[in-house]
Amino acid sequence: MKKNTKKNNKGFSLVELIVVVLIMAIIAVALAPQVMKWVNNARIATDRQTVDSVKANIQLALADEKAFSETKGKKITVTLKKSPANATLAIQDVTDVDGSSFGKQFYEICGSKEGFEKTYAKTYASGKSAITIEYKDGAFTVDGLDTSADLD
Asked: Which of 138, 122, 145 is nearest to 52 (CA)?
């Protein structure tokens, strides 16, 4: 007596699986440089937004008449350091920045001094070891901002 046995050949063979894995590897290798470029552009965009936010906060703080007169002709500097991650505010020739009218206005706009330090230290993403934003006589200068990518 012969038994009729049927082979159940459902599924994929090893060769088919290897071919699919190879195709996926080729696609991954081809896309890796583009993905890295997207990541770098996102970091640069984050830094640009951070700098724009700091600039806006400086301008808002200067809307206060007392803060404006106190800082007239002086250089306001905001430094965002990558390592250790922190953010500082300085005003040329003003020893008590925190107690100054400008400092109070600036920190109030940022929520608090701690809020300013935490927020801007966290959002600083890439570029050099520090970004420095200076404001004097109505003009901003920025040093350390990575502008190598065209994000527009």
From this structure: 145
